[in-house]
Amino acid sequence: MSADRTKPEFDAPEGPAPEELVIRDLIEGDGAEAKPGDTVTVHYAGVEYETGDEFDSSWGRGESIQFPLRGLIQGWQDGIPGMKEGGRRELVIPPHLAYGPAGAGHFLSGKTLIFIIDLIKVG
């Protein structure tokens, strides 16, 4: 099961950061499908598009995390639905779907973010 998977490696992105959300399935899941507003249990890691610097990782904390999609950044709310348990998905999220433009008050404001997410459980 995906809970046992190891932390993913990030490929260096090529070209300019995308202006819209990019969704890419790395591993297709075969379990229950996430829907908008669901509560999900995931493992994830996030890096900055420009630098490749990791800013967060549930693998780094040694445990998965559960949360309702509606409480997350818009890129996750838009990028997780349709994913199935057991899947691994990469999301490339531009600032307007993440933490807003530069100067918006979050240390990731103005940055395009890349997440790799393992969906462990829906509900």
From TrEMBL:
InterPro entries for the chain: PPIase_dom_sf, PPIase_FKBP_dom
Pfam families for the chain: FKBP_C
GO molecular function: peptidyl-prolyl cis-trans isomerase activity
Record-given protein name: Peptidyl-prolyl cis-trans isomerase
Compositionally biased region (Basic and acidic residues): 1-10
Isomerase found in the keyword field: yes
SUPFAM superfamilies linked to this entry: FKBP-like
Positions of region (Disordered): 1-20
Domain PPIase FKBP-type per the UniProt entry, residue ranges: 37-123
PANTHER family documented for this protein: 39 KDA FK506-BINDING NUCLEAR PROTEIN, FKBP-TYPE PEPTIDYL-PROLYL CIS-TRANS ISOMERASE FKPA
EC number(s) on file: 5.2.1.8
Swiss-Prot/TrEMBL catalytic activity: [protein]-peptidylproline (omega=180) = [protein]-peptidylproline (omega=0)
Coiled coil regions in record: none
Record family assignment: Belongs to the FKBP-type PPIase family.
The entry's keywords: Isomerase, Rotamase
